Amino acid sequence: MRTGLARRVLAAGLVSLLAVAGCGVRPTDVITGADPPSGAVAPNTTITLYLVKNGRLSAVTRPPSGRPMFKADTLALLAAGPTAREQARGFTTAIPPETGPFSVTAAPVGHLVVTVSTPAGKLSTLAVDQIVCTAAATPGGAAQVTVIGAGQSVGPRNCPAERS
Q1: Helix (H), strand (E), coil (C) string for 27-96
Q2: Cα 7 from Cα 13, distance rounded (Å)
Q3: Closest by alpha carbon to 61, among 49, 74, 72?
Q4: Closest CA to 148 of 93, 94, 102, 109
Q5: What predicted TM-score, i.e. pTM, was given to this entire model?
Q6: ∠ CA 94-97-100 to the nearest 5 degrees?
Q7: Per-residue pLDDT tens for 66-89?
Q8: pLDDT exceeds cutoff 70 at 63
Q9: What gap in Å lies between CA 33 and CA 5, rounded to an integer?
Q10: Residue range 135-161, pLDDT digits in tens
């Protein structure tokens, strides 16, 4: 009788040991934080676009739109060009209207990828800089931006306006 009890205790112990050992959880290294949120920008956030004045990039702010704005929406405003008031102040854009629609994805931490509808390599340096700086200026933006379109890639680049 003692042998049967000992076997049952031993069997229960082995089953418990296997259950704990076989749970599939393995130790890992420290996991770093994820990318910043990439959803809509709050509707009360000022919109910053980089337009062109006298052949140079210039940050222009617009009042909140009153609706949530995604990074791609901000870039669509950039492609639409300056408002009448901005044009009167001498602002233009180097971005062709057919460059949109845009999509924006977060890559590794500190990096965004902007996909355009035209070949990225055919955009002027100034147009790419406008895209890079505007994307970087959005809340949750990034230090580096790569512009991709029609199988061509430009970047990763930092906003040159931030250096001056």
Answers
A1: CCCCCCCCCCCCCCECCCCCEEEEEEECCEEEEEEECCCCCCECHHHHHHHHHHCCCHHHHHCCCECCCC
A2: 10
A3: 49
A4: 102
A5: 0.69
A6: 110
A7: 777 788 888 989 899 999 999 999
A8: yes
A9: 51
A10: 888 776 677 888 998 888 888 988 887
Cis peptide leading into residue 101 (ω within 30°): yes
147 in Cβ contact with 128 (< 8 Å): yes
Q: What is the pLDDT of residues 90-135, one digit of tens each?
A: 999 999 888 878 888 887 777 888 999 989 989 999 999 999 998 8
Query: What is the chain's length?
Result: 164
- Coil, helix or strand for 154? strand
Interhelix angle for 71-80 vs 125-137, to 10°? 140
